[in-house]
What we know:
Layout: H1 5-12, H2 16-23, H3 31-44, E1 62-69, H4 77-93, E2 96-102, E3 122-125, H5 132-140, E4 145-148, E5 159-163, H6 165-178, E6 184-188, H7 194-209, E7 218-220, H8 225-238, E8 244-247, H9 250-262, E9 272-276, H10 280-284, E10 290-293, H11 296-311, E11 320-323, E12 326-328
Parallel strand pairs: 1-2, 1-3, 3-4, 4-5, 5-11, 6-7, 6-8, 8-9, 9-10
Antiparallel strand pairs: 10-12
Helix pairs in contact: 1-2, 1-3, 2-3, 4-11, 6-7, 8-9
Amino acid sequence: MKITIDTIAAKVGVSKATVSYALTGKNRVSKELRQKILETAKELGYRQGPATRRPGSRKTRTIGLYAPDSAHLVEDIYFNSVLSGILDLAQTKGFGLQLIPSPTDAGRGETIHLDTWQALDGLLIMDPRLSAHYLDEVRSVGLPFVLVGLPEEMDEEVFYVDFDLAASAYIAVNHLLEKGRKRIGFLNSGADMIQSVHRMKGFARAFVENGLPPSDAVAPVGPSIEEGFAVCRQLLSGHPDIDGLVVYNDLAAVGAAQALKEAHRRIPADTALVSGGNTIIASIHSPTLTSVDPNPYRQGYRSAELLIEVVEKKRIRPSHEILPVQLVLRESG
Length: 333
């Protein structure tokens, strides 16, 4: 059986964070408790990994990227655009990158055993499901980190870089309203994600500012063609008269377009379609997709740049950066 921080914590009867503090030599643990934890670790045969090295030890010039669900990495063009930005900045600064894909069966609140990682100087985290407890665990080993996206729970002590989610939905809906569309549907990300909440605020605001009640033709959808097709088909069964549709993700929008065609809805004559992401799919789909561009490459580049500034102690005070978005007009809407 592999001996981890969890094993030691259970044996001593303390939290994982306390064990991490003791192993990294932090002053938040009493001398007596630290000694007990170290003796237990030795007794169990625990081998301290390089990621739990003491702060201030020799740098490796390697940063990590904890990625979203690994089942979708290959088809996730948005993620790959973010990754390109990270890689370019890391190469410019002379840093290597270790990719740490999330397990496909990871659930909300899932943690990773930090003691199993290769030595890292810092960590980029791109997974909206991670809990505050997980971030506390990263903090406990003294590992600098930056979130690529909003934290699940707003925390003023966290560095993060994201695009303006509310604006992405607002400009899409406002564009359709200006085109004379009134019955607008919205395929948003999962209802339990903080990103969805911000998009809904922008979605509703566009209606209110135009003197209209917000549409209730809203449904959650995953970032895939299959889910886009299935959810849009279901949305159309309950709202067959929609004349405009906003989909937060380009891949899901392709599936939605297929569902519209199956229902004999012409794009954009019968239903105008606006997607999100502005990936290459938006420009090669037929019809080409009007899409909100959040500049994922810039998000990745800036996130890596910020992390390295934190690693090199050029940035101490936590900062939050929200990048602007723009609408790229094409044939679908």
